[in-house]
Specification:
The complex is a heterodimer of chains A (168) and B (796).
Chain A (H helix, E strand, L loop, with lengths): L4 E8 L2 E8 L4 H8 L18 E4 L2 E4 L12 E3 L1 H4 L3 H13 L8 H14 L5 H7 L11 H16 L9
Parallel strand pairs in A: 1-5
Antiparallel strand pairs in A: 1-2, 3-4, 3-5
Chain B lengths: L9 H5 L14 H4 L15 E7 L5 E7 L1 H4 L4 E6 H5 L27 E2 L5 E7 L2 H8 L3 E6 L6 H6 L12 E8 L3 H7 L2 E9 L2 E2 L7 E7 L4 E6 L4 H12 L6 E4 L15 H13 L3 E4 L2 H7 L2 E2 L2 E9 L5 E11 L12 H9 L8 E9 L14 H18 L4 H8 L8 E2 L5 E2 L4 H12 L1 H13 L3 E13 L17 E7 L5 E5 L8 H13 L6 E5 L16 H28 L6 E4 L2 E4 L5 E4 H10 L13 E6 L7 E13 L6 E11 L6 H21 L29 E5 L17 H18 L8 E2 L3 H7 L6
Classes of the chains: A alpha+beta (168), B alpha+beta (796).
């Protein structure tokens, strides 16, 4: 079977990608194999475990379910790129301090989910956090320390928020 | 700390700071930045990818295997049958001599004649890319002659269909044990209660699938194997013997391992085939299991049906236990640890925490046409603890005693040690009573019981479950070595002072994320007297670390940690010797603190460690002529006095059962654990929390479902349920510390305790909740369907 190719143009962690790629290739395979960005992992390859998560135009995406060609014209951010950002590093520090990871295989995806919580659900409770990371499978930690780490960042951010929202 | 008077732990008291400190894991930050290196992240020149054609049948003869078309597909390098691979990789038989009478048959890297379970590989395709290899799989044509399937273990025991005709029946292993006077004691007992419990197969579901990259170099007849494994030296030996390559020509390297839990400590046929194919093709070959392959071929565990009896007096004193265990292990006993160990552990451990003198046990381990089973986190413990704790609750209810009180009455007293158990195990020193006291206080047991009664009046069914436990850790050679397995019971550590004053630590125990390297750094830093950030730890490379067993049976801290401690003591002494010569002072007046040589009496800083390194390495001419410094030292450690170190603990679960839907909500979980000396409290608690949630998975969700004809029905993560965060409770943990006297470190190990106790606590909590309705559950996992059936709300 010969590969059907399609030319694409998109950005990964700020760098342009311009090349024909196989239409059947998944985004995470492209990132790992063609760009050597091995921080996104393949755990289940059917969209359940969340280890392959990346941001496409700022939205959490399962890299094992998305075709690479579907990123055409968009921006992709992976754990490698996000690790340069201060607000992401805040989460990484909290994860390290709480040991919110053991083997680390789920951590890239888990951190991306945590990042989305920080961005989109700044007032999430522990129960909310538990629900919001329910698409990320971790076999090692039992999740509690992950919830602790994310909660700590949300609390830090709330305390340092420049314009607290008036509860009235 | 619960230290006995004459413990040899003085070194810990004089050591600096890091033992007992919740330090963030040294060297783990890379994993949070996507900068780790797992097996599949490794690329080598001329790398080929292998995939396997796996039997769609649970039991079938290969009548014809046509590989011609597959060989012609784009990118395909080679396609191999079982017979071709067998020329390069000899088969194995998973038996051990100390499991008397255990039997199995030869297992091949690729089945040449007959497939014995759905998923057994019968051909291999090697291509330039994994995609191309997978595409070519569709072009393999096999003609099968299907054979009758034995998927049910009771049918297997009955033996109407025999999987391996040469064995005559389907029995792999059997064991009987009866203490003297058992029958008379049971017959004379006031009360005998009996129940049957069933446990379903489940599996490890490591986030990172099993994976291996073998790179054979024909010029030197050497092979470097990168493998996601827990036991690199064991694998080195096995590759050597089955591929006929000298041991020292094989180097096994473990990159970052994405979880193992016992799954990655076994010999897998497809991994052996990958290594053989690297030899055959004289190039690097990689195999990474996909998720369906993981479900079909990663070892399963815990398929048991158990009949348990407890005899006690009316006053509530346990007289003894009687156990009958039937377990189905798939068509082969797994190499080299065997599949007899899990059942054997159930026999060893049942009744473990309790003071009683009479015990009878019978174990049958049978072959079936399902995936192989073998040792998975907490091996046998979750079963032994669950049946023991369940029957203890039944007995307590029978005589009208509160289950906590019944346990207090029967748990071995803390001053009764050393204690010999009816099954033959010996306990050095445990702390069941202290743990129980602490647990009841931690959970506020009386208040919970009141709340439970009050909520029942409102139609809310809450239950409290307790589960006391013992856990086998730090095994001596009695576990595997005496049975002929070439699995090291000892481990070693090499410590080197680098020229800049940093400490290089090489240990034979491996890291899979549990924080082994971090605690070794803490021990080394503490004993030598350097800052933690000055330590670097290397594990998982047979070419550079001392020889050792690796990671399994909660042995990393207790065995590897002690080796680090002993090497640290010697290195410190050697450093002081050099410093004494440089300074012209008596060695006994010197100490090391905070990366400096200090005057022991005044605490004055005399010399930075880097100066010792500089002089020893670059200016040894300034030291006396007859003096040679030794700033690299190696020490090993083997537990000897006891067959196993034991830890103990107790867990409690509070659940709410929705009697309309059968759903169980986990409200809270508690654990009090005694793992001896705690090196890093945060990491210890993380082991317990993660372990408990893994145990909860087995208790409530996880089950490898097979059809009667041996087809796995739920081979995806959408169908096989694992614990996700939303359903999990917060877990409260406290500790008692009773260090083992067998080592200076005193660490007993903690990797499996959580998993050991959780299923028993959950089952007891559910039964406590629904017992008032006359219902009880006896089959794990306790799915809503099974709970509704127990409640009589749905029929079969």
């Amino acid at each position: 079977m010969s590969e059907h190719m399609m030319p694409v143009h998109f950005w990964v962690n700020g760098e342009a990608v311009n090349k024909p790629i196989p239409v059947r290739q998944h985004l995470v395979d492209f990132l790992r194999e063609d760009l050597g960005l091995t921080g996104s992992h393949l755990g289940c390859e059917h969209g359940v475990c969340g280890a392959c998560q990346v941001l496409v135009d700022g939205v959490l995406v399962r890299g094992c379910l998305s075709l690479a060609v579907s990123a055409n014209g968009k921006t992709v951010q992976t754990i490698e790129g996000l690790s340069e950002r201060a607000e992401f590093q805040q989460l990484q520090k909290a994860f390290l301090a709480h040991n919110a990871f053991q083997c680390g295989f789920c951590s890239s995806g888990m951190l991306l989910s945590a990042y989305s919580i920080v961005q989109d659900y700044p007032k999430a409770t522990r129960t909310d956090i538990r629900e919001l990371i329910s698409g990320n499978y971790c076999r090692c930690t039992g999740y509690q320390s992950i919830v602790d780490a994310i909660e700590e960042v949300l609390i830090q951010n709330a305390l340092h928020a420049p314009n607290p929202v008036d509860p009235s | 700390m619960n230290a006995p008077q004459d413990t040899p732990q003085a070194v810990l008291e004089s050591a600096q700071g890091y033992i007992g400190a919740s330090e963030p894991r040294l060297g783990a930050k890379k994993l949070l930045e996507g900068r780790g290196q797992y097996l599949d992240d490794i690329r080598l020149p001329r790398l080929a990818h292998v995939v396997f054609y796996r039997s769609p049948h649970a039991h079938a003869l290969i009548k014809d295997l046509d590989l011609t078309r597959a060989r012609q597909q784009p990118g395909v390098i080679a396609v191999f049958s079982g017979a071709e691979v067998a020329e390069f990789c000899s088969p194995w038989v998973g038996v051990l001599s100390h499991l008397k009478g255990i039997r199995s048959v030869e297992q091949f890297a690729i089945a040449p004649v007959k497939a014995c379970w759905q998923g057994e590989a019968v051909a291999a395709v090697v291509a330039l890319s994994r995609r191309q290899a997978e595409d070519a799989l569709d072009h393999i044509q096999v003609q099968w002659e299907t054979l009758p399937v034995v998927s049910d273990m009771e049918q297997a025991l009955q033996g109407d269909v025999v999987i391996h005709p040469e064995l005559g029946d389907n029995l792999c292993f059997t064991r009987d044990l009866e203490t003297e006077g058992f029958r008379a004691a049971f017959d004379a007992a006031d009360v005998v209660v009996e129940r049957v419990y069933e446990f379903s197969r489940h599996t490890g579901v490591t986030n990172e699938p099993r994976s291996i990259l073998a790179n054979y170099n024909p010029a030197e007849h050497t092979m470097t194997v990168y493998q996601s494994t827990q036991a690199p030296h064991m694998m080195q030996d096995i590759f050597s013997r089955h591929l006929n390559i000298p041991e020292s020509n094989i180097r096994v390297i473990c990159p970052d391992v994405g979880g193992s839990f016992g799954i990655k400590v076994h010999v897998y046929a497809d991994e052996m085939a990958t290594a053989a194919i690297s030899v055959m093709l004289k190039r690097p070959v990689k195999f990474v299991a996909d998720r369906i392959e993981s479900f079909l071929t990663d070892i399963h565990a815990r398929e048991h049906k158990i009949n348990i009896k407890l005899a006690c007096s009316k006053a509530g004193d346990i007289v003894g236990f009687e156990l009958r265990d039937l377990t189905g292990i798939g068509p082969f006993s797994v190499y080299p640890r065997t599949s007899g160990i899990e059942g054997n552990q159930v026999v060893n451990l049942t009744g473990g925490p309790y003071r009683h003198r009479h015990y009878k046990a019978h174990l049958d381990v049978v072959f079936t046409n399902k995936n192989l089973t073998c040792q998975y986190r907490a091996v046998g413990h979750p079963i032994a603890v669950a049946v023991t704790e369940a029957i203890v609750d039944v007995a307590a209810r029978e005589i009208g005693m509160d289950p906590a009180e019944f346990r207090r009455r029967n748990l071995i007293a803390d001053d009764q040690y050393p204690y010999s158990f009816p099954s033959g195990l010996k306990f050095e020193k445990l702390s069941h009573q202290q743990c129980l006291d602490k647990l009841l206080k931690l959970m506020d047991y009386p208040r919970l019981r009141q709340e439970q009664s009050a909520s029942r009046a409102q139609g809310i069914y809450r239950g409290i479950g307790l589960a006391a436990m013992i856990e086998v850790t730090n095994p001596s050679p009695a576990f595997y070595g005496v049975g002929g397995a070439r699995i090291s019971a000892q481990d070693g550590a090499t410590l080197r002072l680098d020229s800049s004053g940093m400490l290089n630590v090489l240990v034979s125990v491996t890291e899979q994320g549990q924080g082994t390297e971090a605690i070794f750094a803490q021990i080394a830093a503490s004993v030598v007297g350097v800052s933690l950030h000055k330590v670097r730890v290397i594990t998982g490379d047979t070419a550079v670390t001392p020889y050792g067993g690796g990671t399994w049976a909660s042995r990393g801290a207790g065995i590897g940690g002690e080796a680090v401690l002993q090497a640290g003591k010697l290195l410190k002494s050697n450093i002081l010797e050099v410093a004494a010569l440089i300074l012209g002072k008596d060695k006994v007046l010197l100490d090391i603190q905070g990366d400096e040589l200090i005057d022991k009496l005044s605490g004055t800083s005399l010399l930075p460690l880097s100066e010792v390194g500089r002089v020893a390495y670059f200016r040894p001419d300034t030291l006396p002529k007859d003096y040679q410094s030794e700033l690299t030292v190696t020490r090993h450690y083997t537990p000897r006095e006891y067959g196993f170190t034991f830890t103990n603990g107790i867990q409690a679960s509070l659940v709410e059962v929705d009697i309309e839907t059968g759903f169980v909500t986990l409200l809270q979980h508690w654990c009090v654990e005694d793992c001896g000396t705690i090196i890093n409290p945060m990491l210890v608690d993380e082991q317990i929390k993660g372990g408990i949630v893994q145990g909860i998975g087995g208790a409530l969700f996880e089950e490898c479902l097979y059809s009667p004809d041996g087809q796995l029905l739920n081979g995806s993560m959408a169908d096989y349920l694992v614990p996700m965060s939303f359903e999990m409770p917060d877990i409260l943990i406290e500790h008692v510390q009773t260090p083992t006297r067998g080592s200076e470190l005193g660490a007993k190990g903690v990797g499996e305790a959580g998993t050991a106790g959780a299923p028993g606590a959950i089952m007891n909590a559910i039964n406590d909740a629904i017992g008032v309705l006359g219902a009880n559950v006896q089959v794990q996992p306790h799915t809503p369907e099974r709970i509704l059936k127990a409640l009589g709300r749905v029929s079969i």
